[in-house]
Write a structure and sequence with these properties.
about 160 residues, 3-stranded antiparallel beta sheet, 1 helix, Immunoglobulin-like, 7-stranded antiparallel beta sheet, mainly beta
């Protein structure tokens, strides 16, 4: 009888019956890197409207609409500008004759910008800035004729 009891105690010790298992921890590291980036997202295209004498098409005239672009920056060294086109990409036959273009922009959000000439670079803060881009096309002589006009302003973040 004594041998059976002794063997039962040894068996219980080997199977962990009397002692509790110890917890073991493992550490899992997580790393991430955000590179400096500037992301441009076009929201709303602009709308050009003719003035009363049809010598100017402008998005800032009554009934016109500035284009909206969202700028997201993750670095502090970026600057934005809005470069006017040199010609319409779509226009009637005489649509590009004697035309000069001017772009301007303003912004709110991470960076607040008053109405700024397009080629002027403005430093951007970190985060999201909503930029309104305006365009005007002016005829030095003659008038804009009936037809569709399309132009593209290049918004640059560098």
């Amino acid at each position: 009888m004594w041998k059976i009891a002794r063997m039962g105690a040894v068996g219980a010790a080997l199977c962990g019956g009397a002692s509790a298992a110890r917890a073991v921890d493992g550490l899992v590291p997580f790393n991430g890197t955000i590179l400096a980036a500037c992301v441009l997202t076009v929201g709303t295209p602009g709308v050009l409207v003719a003035n009363g004498t049809y010598t100017e098409l402008s998005s800032s005239a009554g009934g016109g609409l500035g284009g909206i672009i969202t700028v997201l920056t993750t670095g502090a060294s970026f600057k934005v500008s809005a470069l006017a086109p040199s010609a319409f990409t779509l226009a009637p036959a005489t649509g590009n004759d004697n035309v000069s273009f001017a772009a301007a922009y303003s912004g709110s959000g991470a960076t607040t910008m008053p109405n700024t000439p397009g080629a002027t670079q403005t430093s951007l803060g970190l985060g999201v800035t909503n930029v309104v881009v305006n365009l005007s096309a002016t005829k030095a002589s003659g008038n804009f004729v009936t037809g569709n006009y399309t132009a593209t302003v290049t918004v640059r973040c560098e």
